[in-house]
Design a protein that fits this description.
elongated; two-stranded antiparallel ribbon; about 325 residues; alpha+beta
Length: about 325
């Protein structure tokens, strides 16, 4: 009794002075319940449990579901402890704790009860795993996952993404999800509204979807996609021009002048005949944009944007 009383007092002290201790116990209890439900439920019921795990926000959820999908999530029969099999070669399998990741050594495969998955559920798991990181509490993880969806959305994911957009708090993540969904809708459904969403996008998957739409039999879709692609090409042209100018500046031509229209010079520090001196990169881009607008895509200035001549000798053309 004295030992039990001492342990109880120790747990009380830990929960008072280390709040995370009590919370960790609760989280592991919930995790144990989720894994138990996954193991004990029927194949029909497992789908709901899988969704609960995916939506739990637990950083271990991906590992659990990946192990489940590959038949490596299991229990030790004698203790009921959940494990992940890391090496299933031979009669003795190497395992680790599913809750802590601790290496538990080797167990005879006869002492291990695998949590089974069928093919139908394995297909569901693939879709769930593709969006599980979108429910991560870490914004960077959600943003990376959202960007990875561009060009990868299928009909099943297309049903999930709108709900994720509605609940997402981060604007960059929401924008990436919106673009990923728009790429699918343009490529697979010929959605006119989605075409507008992709207008100006520099993503290669977005451009591929628009190019596909330009080959459609629907004149309205072709016109909208063509307009969107024109917007993208204009942005790419200006970006290439900006890169040319920027690399010229980086080479040290601080006192050089760049001819971006016949008889019209832009100094590399941003000073120009038609505007005030602006000694920054933004200033150079301002004047460069002015030149592109004034000359037009086919005018003499457009070519000279890519052929800036510096007083230090040579031009902005690669290879000079």
């Amino acid at each position: 009794m004295g030992i039990i009383r001492s342990l109880s007092q120790l747990l009380l002290v830990c929960s008072l002075f280390w709040p995370g201790f009590a919370q960790a116990q609760v989280e592991d209890t919930e995790a144990q319940q989720l894994l138990t439900a996954l193991a004990d439920s029927s194949f029909t019921e497992k789908k709901a449990v899988v969704n609960r795990i995916a939506g739990s926000g637990d950083e271990r959820a991906r590992g659990w579901l990946e192990s489940f999908a590959s038949n490596k999530l299991a229990r030790i029969e004698s203790s009921g402890q959940f494990i992940i099999v890391t090496d299933n070669r031979g009669r003795n399998w190497t395992v680790q704790s599913a809750l802590t990741g601790e290496n538990l050594g080797e167990f005879s495969r006869r002492d291990i009860d695998t949590v089974r998955v069928n093919n139908a559920l394995r297909g569901e798991l693939e879709d769930i795993l593709s969006v599980i990181d979108l429910k991560s509490p870490n914004q960077s993880s959600r943003l990376s996952a959202a960007r990875a969806l561009k060009g990868s959305v299928d009909s099943a994911l297309a049903e999930r993404v709108p709900g994720l957009i509605d609940t997402e708090q981060s604007e960059p993540v929401r924008a990436a999800l919106t673009e990923a969904l728009a790429i699918y809708r343009v490529a697979e459904q010929g959605d006119l509204a989605a075409v507008e969403t992709l207008s100006g996008s520099l993503n290669s998957q977005a451009r591929a979807a628009l190019q596909q739409a330009m080959r459609s039999d629907d004149p309205a879709l072709v016109a909208a996609a063509t307009k969107a692609m024109d917007s993208i090409e204009q942005k790419l042209t200006l970006n290439r021009a900006a890169e040319t100018l920027y690399f010229g500046l980086s080479l040290g031509f601080g006192s050089g002048a760049c001819r971006h229209r016949p008889g019209h010079y832009l100094w590399c520090d941003g000073r120009d005949q038609h505007g005030p001196r602006r000694a920054d990169y933004a200033g150079c881009l301002h004047h460069l944009g002015h030149a592109a607008t004034a000359a037009g895509p086919a005018g003499p200035g457009a070519d000279s944007i890519h052929s800036c001549r510096f007083s230090g000798g040579g031009t902005g053309r690669r290879g000079d």
